[in-house]
Amino acid sequence: MGYVLSNEGINKAFEALRKEYRIFAPVLKVGEGRFKDTDVIRYDFVDSYDEVEMDKRSDFSYKDIVTPLSESMFFFTEDQIREANFDASPVIVLMRACDINAVERLDQIFLANGEHNDYYYERRREVIKFALIGCGKTCEDGFCVDMGSNKAEDYVFSLDPKDGKVYVNVKEDDLDAAFADNSESSADVVPQFVTENEVHVERPEEVPLTLFKDEMWDEYSKRCINCGRCNFVCPTCSCFTIQDLFFTDNGKVGERRRVNASCMVDGYTDVAGGLVQRRSNGERMRFKVLHKVYDFRKIFGYDMCVGCGRCDTVCPEYISFSNCINKLNARVKELEG
Amino acid sequence: MTTRDINTKKFKKNAFRYSKVRGETASRVRCPGGEIDVESLQRVVDIAKKYGQGTVNITNRQGFEIPGISLDDIDAVNHALQTIIENRGVNQEEYNGGYPASGTRNVVACPGKKLCPFGCYDTKAFAQEIDKAIFPNDHHVKIAFTGCSNDCAHVRLNDFGIMGQTEPQYNRDRCVGCEQCVKYCKKRSVGALSVVNGKIVRDTNKCIGCGVCINYCPTRAWTRSKEEYFRVVLLGRTGKKNPRLAEDFLKWADHDSIKKMIVNVYAYLDEYLDKAAVESKEHIGYIVDRTGFEEFLKYIMKGVELGPKCEMQGRLYWGGKRYDQTNELKKSMFRFSEREE
Amino acid sequence: MAGKNEYTPMPSRLQDIIKQAENEWTFRFTYVGPVKPGQFFQVSIPKVGEAPISVSGIGEDFVDLTIRKVGKVTDYLFENFQAGDSLFIRGPYGNGFDVEEYAKGEMIIVAGGTAVSPIRGVVQYLCKTDHPQDTHLIAGFKNPDEIMFKPDFEEWKDLIDLTVTVDGAPEGYEGNVGLVTQYIPDIPIRDIESCKAIVVGPPPMIKFSIIELVKRGFNEEHIWISDSRKMSCGIGKCGHCRVNSKYICIDGPVFKYTEHRALVD
What we know:
The structure holds three protein chains of three kinds.
Chain A lengths: L1 E4 L1 H12 L3 E8 L10 E7 L23 E7 L4 E3 L7 E5 L1 H16 L6 H7 L2 E6 L10 H4 L9 E6 L2 E6 L2 H8 L4 E2 L31 H6 L5 H5 L6 E7 L7 E7 L20 H20 L9 H5 L6 H16 L1
Chain B lengths: L7 H6 L2 E3 L5 E6 L8 H13 L6 E2 L5 E7 L3 H14 L20 E2 L13 H12 L8 E4 L13 E6 L3 E2 L9 H9 L4 E4 L2 E4 L9 H5 L5 E2 L5 E6 L12 E7 L1 H18 L11 H8 L1 H8 L10 E2 L29
Parallel strand pairs in B: 5-6, 6-7
Antiparallel strand pairs in B: 1-2, 2-4, 3-4, 7-12, 8-11, 9-10, 12-13, 13-14
Helix pairs in contact in B: 2-3, 4-7
Chain C lengths: L9 E12 L2 E7 L9 E6 L3 E10 L3 E7 L3 H9 L5 E8 L5 H4 L4 E6 L3 H12 L7 E7 L8 H7 L4 E6 L9 E2 L18 E5 L2 H13 L7 E4 L15 E2 L2 E2 H4 L2 E3 H4 L5
Parallel strand pairs in C: 7-8, 7-11, 8-9, 9-10, 11-12
Antiparallel strand pairs in C: 1-2, 1-6, 2-5, 3-4, 3-6, 4-5, 12-15, 13-14
């Protein structure tokens, strides 16, 4: 059902939803950016609609809720292993279409790659419902249209703010009352999707093996500072590293946790004994880019990248991922020709 | 050419320089915080064209100096300066009278937070605020603001050097232990960070609040404190007798305390400046050498209530070469030439 | 509800520790369940970490994991555990060697150093077939002190065609001295077309051994190798071991040579 809600109405609707759900949404964190007086938009739990950053794409994605940056797996005592608890109460995550498409990619890695499911992902994933934030216009750097991830149908309700009202399309009956009870009127609501980006990409169908060691990656060895921001903001990056530790007090109690990992950051491939793969940042760039627009597709049939453009926006060295895709495509054509 | 009978003390106080070229002067344009709007900049150009010789000096203290002006044109130049003085918000005593003083030097500032990725506060705004509070004054006081511990503004050569600090805020849950903060703190700063159990520990005593960790953190685990803090360094100077760097007086100080301290210094100078000083100009440091630091402290700390985080250096000692005692260079252990033999 | 937590370390009693070389010991872990040579386990030490270790032997109620003392986890293991102690493992993971395929005909196995571990189970299996003499094993080590699995070699030497060699040895050493590659041309093979091969060891050794095999007219499709990478999860999630579209932990560690050579790190 579709509804039109006033600002007061939508806040009341959130209040109603909060009785059963936690709401995880993009929030403007004032002053938490890299530089003085710069902000960051990242996900956090909210109580009201007014707390949600509805205008701009978030700098960090929703993925904190399914793959937290740092997550306890086990707690150890002298002779016991205890699985870490988590808050299993249901969550509604407010996401744009690109991110809803990104979850599908994470599902592949965590729930379909190999015979074992990732327990920690799965248990969080199970308590989550997606709500769509409509995109009236393209964001900076986004190229979701070319990646085919500008639309999403898998959501429980959608939110489209317009002229001081919020247009809501409710798909899940259980949630209908929260909006119906607080609406000004019913309406046929179709959530907005971006149909045109400023940025366009063309991807190669096949990438010849010679391209893996091609000179096109050399410029990134010089430009990239391997900080990994592109990975940490990416809604589809899923890599993690398991860390063990003991609490220094007595050494008898400890923890096993996992933290997000980045294939750009030093240490990603280091093994005991000293072997390291991909020392140069150009090689790391190639590893990442080809995973996003080629290697993942070889396994799962579609590309990993959803074209949200976050990696472009965040790169401190102004390296454009989308432009790299285009350079890759041009280079493949050149080598073929 | 008419006979000149000019009071040099008066034009020097009026921010015109004594020139080696007889009959000429240079107009010194005050730009608090080293900032100028393009309209004012155009006026500087116009004055240099009309009254000067088509060149402008950029001063070491971030002002402009228009040389080659005839002493006869001082009034005309003062008229032409009026827009600049107003645009720059510099206190004035007489409309069209030019600058009312030159003793307290232009307040210097690095670009600060508006431009620089490491800037911890608005250096220019603070500099301009202080300029408003202390100018005009004939006492020779040098004040400079720099955005971070890098001290690009060379505040350690000033009587009051203000360096921005931020207190890094650590969100453990957002830390993935990539250790880039540790690496960059070591390479670009003081090495105050270490890894314990995959998370970062900050040596709060060692940390200088430069914010390098915050800039390099890729996950926003490190963020800036809402509060702006400052390191205050005192009584640095260049000069012939005993040039020396300013020494640390406060860390984690607050804005209001700093403003009070700077304003307070003028009462101290009124009281203790050597009345026989040449051109009434004496570096504060030499006065402090006479009165003792305690007395200086008594004056500048009047009404100052430092915040709970603020730490103060109890005693200050300055170094630097004492040319009034020796101008000898120590002989090198290594011989670079045979001349000595 | 989420299914089984595959990350949960399973308690396992250490049945025995067999010292192969100074820094290479075989730890015999109690384990009952399906497992193949070439697969690996995560040896899991709470508060210290996990290390992926390939299976070097399989018994009724145990698996042998031959471990090189080389990092935080393995150092801790060497220094703190004795036979009878209990610790933790999880696995087995990875595809492993398809021993039945290898048992069909003639087989060449070239292994260098610690990499003898993953093929030990393969040889054990082939020894039990009715034609163990069709198995040709060339095992190379750096020097006589680093020769591992000596009792196995003693047992195998009359069953299979075994060559144990060292890269270098002090004067008076009576065994073979020379690189594994120099023995490949002389392996007696009846039908080079159908013969299969496993090559495991350091990357340069693999490369030159394969060159020698191909020189003899070997079908490249009949060569398998085993690879390793940094691993955290062991189950295709953490991403560290991915090379192109393959995850070493689930698509490997055993690969057909022709498939593996299309992987670029």
